[in-house]
Amino acid sequence: MTPPTPLREEALRLLRLARRDRDTFELLLPLPKASLAAIGFHAQQAVEKALKAVAVLSGVAISRTHDLAALGQAMVDRGRELPLSVDQLRSLNPFAVQFRYDDELVPDTTREALDSMVSAVLDWAGDVISRA
What we know:
Four Helix Bundle (Hemerythrin (Met), subunit A); globular; mainly alpha; 6 helices
């Protein structure tokens, strides 16, 4: 058996963190008093870390960014197929900062759409990493 590589270990660490954010997202999702901004923050964080986990394995340089569209585009440019379009990833970007600090903005999405995106990306990342 081949020992795990440092890149695979980092990908697994990021996937664990993504799953932790997904767990928090899933706890908040059914709560009527939980704001869409708070729910969306954990959705965005789960997707970000899952994308970064796959990026590490794909040789894509990752930085301390919350720009999911840029991260997704970098992977597409490297030939990696994504479970969501770059535009769908972009729709999560405001949850990283903007919606957390501005109570006047209304996210243009639903809980169901967030749930679908989180599931698609985390399932995909888990599959990619398990095959690596």
